[in-house]
From TrEMBL:
GO terms for biological process: transmembrane transport. This is Sugar ABC transporter permease. PANTHER family: ABC TRANSPORTER PERMEASE PROTEIN. The chain crosses the membrane at residues 48-70, 110-131, 143-164, 184-204, 211-232, 269-290, 315-338. One of its GO terms (cellular component) is plasma membrane. Belongs to the binding-protein-dependent transport system permease family. It comes from Halocalculus aciditolerans. SUPFAM superfamilies: MetI-like (SSF161098). It is found in: Cell membrane. Residues 106-338 form the ABC transmembrane type-1 domain. It is a multi-pass membrane protein. Keywords: Cell membrane, Membrane, Transmembrane, Transmembrane helix, Transport.
Length: 346
């Protein structure tokens, strides 16, 4: 701080009084209009936040911007792109929007986002209500439910590949042992026919069993996180609300539906945003299970981006898919950030 004060005094002494052409002087009144106030809290805090801000801006947002620039070129193979404004175009985006594989990956990504997040929220809420009843060994149950979240996608993918094994996997072994052989199947296969259910309007003739096997495994891993978020929300609701609902004669189901669950809106939004971000990052899980090409039954934008960029050396095309995936992530996070801004939390 002493060096900043010395610099401030030096600037003031150098500024002095300007000499006018008629021999007089110009008197400076008040504070300078352009010199910063070195005693302000903003200037004093600069050394602490400016370096990490610049580093994050360069390595994160700079990389995103550079990726967008590459997506405007024809960068592929071992030939370097030409970084000229006249050569930039949106050809890679047009190619993606006319590619059936791209739309299959978009469909799978949306299904993964919606189904995984919805089921995880419902499962987490039910577990939180169960744990909130004051059961014995509450802390043990809470730890058991939350423990899978501490595992990486690589570990859980290997674990579930064993579970889903068609001949030796524990799921099919249990089903066969209890006489439910007709339910034993190749869980990591492509599709299963829905049979007579296909006669129902809008019901698909085949279900992507591979994608739903992935969703079930992710549900096992992250429902504990939703449980913890909901449990914190339940514990924050005053006991008066429970007692008032019971005095009014509300049943347990009505009390949760009309009184308790509406007060969990903030918990639901925050958990949903985090879970959708986890779903967008499911590349590790799919790559360990199926490699870079899970097939149309489970291909998502992240695996397609990796396959095009690092498998086919279509760098510009892969960058375009990455930018589209980034826009999807923004569409997930932006409403949450806006709601937090409206509440004054940002």
């Amino acid at each position: 701080m002493s060096r900043l004060n010395q610099l401030r005094e030096r600037l003031r002494s150098v500024r002095g009084d300007d000499v006018r052409t008629d021999g007089g002087t110009v008197e400076h009144t008040g504070e300078s209009g352009f010199l910063p106030d070195f005693d302000s809290e903003f200037v004093r805090s600069l050394p602490f936040w400016l370096p990490p801000f610049l580093l994050m801006g360069f390595f994160v947002y700079g990389a995103i911007g550079w990726n967008f620039v590459i997506s405007l070129t024809d960068f592929s193979g071992f030939s370097l792109p030409t970084y000229e404004l006249s050569a930039f175009d949106f050809e890679m985006y047009r190619q993606a929007f006319s590619d059936p594989t791209f739309w299959t990956a978009v469909q799978n990504t949306v299904i993964l986002l919606v189904v995984f997040t919805s089921l995880c929220l419902v499962g987490g809420l039910l577990l939180a209500i169960l744990v909130d009843q004051g059961i014995r060994f509450e802390n043990t149950f809470r730890t058991v439910y939350l423990l899978p979240m501490a595992l990486s996608f690589v570990v859980t993918a290997v674990f579930w590949s064993w579970m889903y094994n068609n001949t030796t996997g524990v799921i099919n072994v249990v089903l066969r042992s209890v006489g439910l052989d007709f339910l034993a199947m190749n869980w990591l296969g492509g599709y299963i026919d829905t049979g007579v259910l296909a006669t129902i309007p809008y019901f698909p003739s085949a279900v992507k069993i591979r994608l739903f096997a992935v969703i079930f495994a992710l549900l096992w891993q992250y429902s504990g996180y939703a449980m913890v978020v909901y449990l914190a929300g339940l514990r924050a609701i005053p006991d008066d609300h429970y007692e008032a609902a019971r005095i009014d004669g509300a049943s347990t189901l009505t009390m949760y539906r009309r009184v308790i669950i509406p007060q969990l809106r903030a918990s639901t939004i925050s958990a949903a945003v985090v879970l959708m971000v986890f779903a967008l990052k499911a590349f590790d899980f799919l790559y360990v299970l199926f490699g870079s090409n899970p097939g149309p039954a489970a291909d998502i934008l992240a695996t397609m981006m990796y396959r095009e960029a690092f498998g086919s050396n279509q760098w510009a095309y892969g960058s375009a898919i990455a930018i589209i995936l980034f826009v999807m992530a923004l569409a997930v996070i932006a409403p949450y950030l806006y709601s937090e801004y409206r509440r004054g939390e940002l």
